[in-house]
Here is the input.
Amino acid sequence: METVAPFKEVVLEIKEAGGGAFRHCFQCGLCDAVCPWNRVRQFSIRKIIRQATFGLTEIDGEDIWRCTTCGRCPQHCPRGVKQIEVGVSLRRVASNYEVFPASVRSARTARASLISEGNPLQFERKKRADWAKDLSVKTFTEGMEVLYFVGCYLSYDPRMKKTATATANILKKAGVDFGILGTKENCCGESIRKTGSEEVFRSLAKENIKTFIDNGVKKILVSSPHCYHTFKNEYPEFMVNFEVIHISQYLLELINKGRLKLTKEYDKKVTYHDPCYMGRHNGIYDEPRDVLKKIAGLELVEMADSRKESLCCGGGGGRIWMDTPKSERFSDLRLKQANEIGAQVLVTACPYCITNFEESRLNLEYGDVIEVKDITEIVNDVF
Here is the structure.
């Protein structure tokens, strides 16, 4: 039997999150038309908004957990309905009732790991800086030019450690005085917040903020768009403001100032994928492309669904931790788009995107067809 939360609880939760904007919906269906889910299966965010209006949402079904918070529906909504906020508020209700479908169980495991070890990947906190053992990376101290906030995936995931290493190499080559927090670094908390675990997010945020303040952090460099979004747009809820810059922006700055010289050629056809939390959520489209255009020999080509219309990889909204059937993975569609234009390399700047694209390379047997690279890996190869 499906569980329907009490009307008052659902409506109050949604009103707090969306300011009552969900009641503005007049069911035009534009949200469903642009939702990436409808490229792989039938799904209706419009239906969820309608049910939420009357407090009739089934909180133990799969649907409230499908949203990747990619930002496509609010981008096109003519009535200002806050679909993401409504969806997250429903997940908070489900979390309060401890009601989760089978596909979400891995997200619950991630939650437990965040509480105990500060990361969602079930690795020990004491190993958070192991990726940097042989790189002579310093511990951040007050007065340094920038704090490099590495993030969870780049600290622990074997594939993503390559990006952390490339980033460290670039910063050292450019003469940047930087450091990392190592074991004092916690997950930024963005994704767990989107799964409805508000208290876990707040706990992680408060710990990070205290660490930043105690260590005299002023400027934070990040590799993950999710860290960027949270530090820039969500941590100010705690009455703090740090200067936050994404590595793609910083690369362009270093190149333009002459601190980083790109001397080698990269004779490949490359296409760039806009991560949702860099593009639609934060308007960062030009900087990564400008960096790639400065690399000799590199031919930059655009895929269908680029920039504001970029196709989500499927990892946002905490779905990076949830089970998605092979036939329903947006990342497969994205790799096919890259292959259709003859790209040899699919470049992006988000650990979730890279993780999903690498898995899709295996699913599609594209191992010899296309490479998946972080933008720092390309830059690291040409200086």
Notes: DSSP finds 16 helices and eight strands in the chain. The longest strand covers residues 146-149. The mean pLDDT is 94.
